[in-house]
Amino acid sequence: MIKHVVMWRLKEKVEGNTKEYNALEIKKQIEALQDKIDVVIDLEVGINFEESSQAYDV
């Protein structure tokens, strides 16, 4: 089994969209990969709602 952890910090606003909106879009698109990549058995995507300078957003 291979585990891979990826975390991102997002900018407050990109192309007119808020950080929250972009985080939800990233989550939706990553979750859609499970149906497109047959070797992916399980994946989890979480959005961090804690405001901290050390926290990642997705």
- Mean pLDDT level: 92
Backbone shape: flat
Count of strand segments: 2
Q: Into how many domains do the coordinates divide?
A: 1
Poorly predicted regions: none
Strand proportion: 5-15%
Q: How widely separated are the two ends? A: 23 Å
Strand order of the largest sheet: 1-2
The value of Rg in angstroms is 13 Å
Helix segment tally: 1
InterPro entries: Dabb, Dimeric_a/b-barrel
Organism: Clostridium perfringens
Domain Stress-response A/B barrel: 2-58
Protein name: Dabb family protein
What characteristics describe this protein?
58 residues, mainly alpha, two-stranded antiparallel ribbon
Structure description:
It is flat, with a radius of gyration of 13 Å. Helices cover 31% and strands 7% of the residues. By secondary structure, the protein is mainly alpha-helical. The protein has one domain (1-58). The protein has 1 helix and 2 strands, in the order ββα. Strand 1 (13-14) and strand 2 form a beta hairpin.
